[in-house]
């Protein structure tokens, strides 16, 4: 059903019948990844050409920047420093949203950057990226990171108290070579695998695919809950978003990189899911660290709103995470209010209330300035509508 549904969505976009707000969050996330805060194309250190380029994708980079950096170190060591680096989004959000225009822009940007490197082979960790490249870049030679690691990696012995179940991302449903490599790697590290009834070519989506989690949240919640109820065993997956969605609902889940690069003294299956704002911060810090460490370069200057310091109590943190409101969204609201004076003041609570509309979504923040120059956020919400005349 995926293809006819996707075609229908594209027609709805073309005829202005698809609400822009349905995929706004994913498309802004893609824009962030392809902007100056994260996007990067570089040949290997001390070289001006490469036969391979590592494309880790935006979600792994945001969820596990330290693992991403270690994976790049492994590839450079394995291929004698002949591996460049490309940080950006593959364009899947635009493709899934039916936005042919934005996806075409993403494709053009990738091809331009790829050509600058001399059209090297692309090494991918993300299963969604692998699917996008396979379908939309048939002329680009792609390689799964997991196939490379299975052939050339080190396999630290890990302690497994019980068998584990592998959750195959739905975008690898027909990539048996990747599924085989995953199982081979885990077995070499001492893991015992108990297959889920729905695995490999029958595996189920975690709710990330097609942006279901944004377009239809109630259905997405049923989908992810059904998946994690399939087995009481700890899950191991190799998709950052699958891991985050499962962990967010309390399912003991690890990413395979946890076993390859993670600490041995920590129960990584209990690690919390990475929040959306932290995901952006991690991508930026990854780029900043790699530029400084490998190429002695610096990041572009920060925008004015980024200097605004926010204090988020735990309940507010959960609130904004559930409502898909980023720290940068709230910073922009407060910066806009201070700069324009467009804000309301409640004398009884001593709180300000202000709004800002960067695109199709309007964000509201209730806050109070603090003595140290920071801002305590009491509430934040958004709405996705316009009142016509």
Mean pLDDT: 93
Q: Secondary-structure element sequence?
A: HHEEHHEHHEHEHEHHHEHEHHEHHEEEE
Strands of the biggest beta sheet: in what spatial order?
Answer: 1-3-2-4-5
Instruction: Count all strands and give the number.
Output: 13
Tell the overall outline: globular
Structural class: alpha/beta
Uncertain regions spanning at least 5 consecutive residues: none
Please tell me how large the radius of gyration is: 22 Å
Please report which band the strand proportion falls in: under 5%, 5-15%, 15-25%, 25-35%, 35-45% or over 45%. Answer: 5-15%
Helix content: 40-55%
Number of helices: 16
Tally of distinct domains: 2
Tell me the major beta sheet: 5 strands, mixed
Measured distance between first and last alpha carbons? 39 Å
Give a description of the structure.
The structure is a single chain. The longest helix is centred in the C-terminal third of the chain and has 20 residues, at about 275-295. It is built from 16 helices and 13 strands. With about 400 residues, the chain is an alpha/beta fold. It folds into two domains: about 1-290, no CATH class; about 305-385. The model has no long low-confidence stretch (mean pLDDT about 95). The chain is globular, with a radius of gyration of 22 Å. A five-stranded mixed β-sheet has the order 1-3-2-4-5, with helices on both faces. A hairpin with a 4-residue loop joins strand 10 and strand 11.
């Amino acid at each position: 059903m995926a293809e006819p549904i996707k075609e229908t969505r594209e027609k709805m976009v073309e005829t202005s019948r698809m609400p822009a707000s349905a995929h706004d969050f994913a498309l802004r996330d893609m824009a962030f990844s392809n902007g100056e805060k994260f996007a990067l194309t570089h040949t290997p250190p001390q070289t001006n050409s490469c036969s391979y380029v590592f494309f880790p994708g935006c979600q792994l980079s945001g969820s596990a920047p330290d693992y991403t950096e270690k994976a790049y170190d492994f590839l450079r060591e394995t291929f004698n420093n002949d591996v460049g680096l490309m940080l950006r989004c593959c364009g899947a959000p635009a493709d899934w949203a039916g936005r042919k225009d934005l996806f075409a822009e993403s494709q053009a940007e990738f091809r331009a950057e790829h050509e600058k490197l001399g059209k090297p082979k692309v090494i991918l960790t993300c299963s969604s990226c692998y699917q996008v490249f396979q379908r939309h870049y048939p002329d680009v030679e792609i390689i799964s990171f997991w196939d490379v690691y299975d052939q050339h990696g080190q396999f630290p012995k890990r302690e497994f108290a019980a068998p584990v179940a592998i959750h195959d991302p739905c975008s690898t449903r027909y990539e048996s070579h990747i599924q085989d490599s995953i199982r081979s790697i885990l077995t070499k590290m001492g893991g015992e695998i108990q297959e889920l009834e729905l695995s490999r070519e029958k595996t189920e989506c975690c709710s990330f695919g097609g942006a279901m989690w944004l377009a239809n949240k109630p259905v997405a919640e049923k989908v992810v809950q059904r998946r994690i109820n399939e087995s009481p065993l700890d899950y191991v997956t190799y998709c950052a978003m699958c891991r985050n969605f499962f962990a967010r609902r309390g399912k003991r889940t690890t990413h395979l990189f946890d076993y390859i690069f993670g600490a041995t003294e920590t129960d990584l299956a209990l690690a919390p899911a990475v929040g959306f704002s932290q995901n952006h911060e991690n991508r930026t810090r990854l780029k900043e660290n790699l530029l400084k460490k490998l190429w002695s370069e610096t990041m572009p200057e920060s925008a004015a709103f980024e200097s605004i310091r926010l204090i988020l109590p735990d309940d507010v943190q959960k609130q904004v995470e559930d409502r898909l409101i980023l720290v940068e969204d709230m910073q922009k609201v407060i910066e806009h209010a201070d700069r324009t004076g467009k804000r309301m003041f409640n004398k009884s609570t001593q709180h300000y209330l202000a709004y800002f509309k960067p695109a199709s979504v309007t964000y509201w923040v209730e806050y109070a300035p603090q003595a140290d120059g920071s801002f305590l956020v009491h509430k934040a919400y958004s709405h996705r509508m316009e009142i016509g005349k």
